[in-house]
Amino acid sequence: MMDEATSLASTGSGATPSLRRRMASLVYEMLLLFGVSLLPGAIGALLLAITGHPPGFALQLIAFAIFGAYFVWFWSRRGQTLPMQTWHMRLVDARGAPPTLARAAARYLVGCAWIAPATALAWVNGWTGWHLLGAVGAGTLAYGLLALLHPQRQFWHDAVCGTRLIDARPLTDSGAPH
Fold first, then answer.
1. CA torsion sign, 161 to 162 to 163 to 164?
2. Total-model pTM
């Protein structure tokens, strides 16, 4: 019987998925996170009702923790979130296994580099609403394009954390991905 790491490594080509597929998965991920964000929103409404004050920064920390738990749990269990399954990609460590809890948590924290510079720029300039969204969108796109500078076309937070995204499309009888 194959262990989980061998089973995961035997599916798909192991090649890096295209930047287009990874960005499409990111868009899908953002749609799902909208639903996940209902939980911190409910917690914020509860805190407002109890204290009479908007939770502000505390709510942002709660949302950060909930989003982190979402990603770390999925990445460390199967190496995939639902959007990653849909777009046939998997997160693995150097051995081809799903990352450990610690490695997945590190990837989440380092991965925040996607939005940190643009968010800081918006904060310094007092941008809100569409200006903030535009800055974060442009920053995310620029960060994603940096993968083109990596020798294996991996995102830089994966290079730092010892993880990589691989193609997880099912193999045909000839061994080529679907």
1. positive
2. 0.82
Q: Find, among 21, 13, 33, the residue nearest to 144 by Cα.
A: 21
Q: What's the rounded Cα separation, in Å, for the pair 76 and 50?
A: 35
Angle at 54 between CA 105 and CA 109, to 5 degrees: 10
φ, ψ at 78 (rounded to 5°): -125, -5
| CA distances to 8, 14, 17, 47, 175 from 178, in Å | 16, 13, 13, 49, 9
> Do the beta carbons of residue 90 and residue 13 sit within 8 Å?
no
Q: How confident is the model over 90-144, as pLDDT tens digits?
A: 999 999 999 999 999 999 999 998 888 888 999 899 999 999 999 988 998 999 9
Task: Kindly tell me the burial class for residue 5, based on how many C-beta atoms sit within 10 Å of its own C-beta (0-12, 13-18, 19 or more).
Answer: middle
| Domain residue ranges of the chain, discontinuous segments joined by + | 12-167
**Mean pLDDT, the chain, integer:** 88
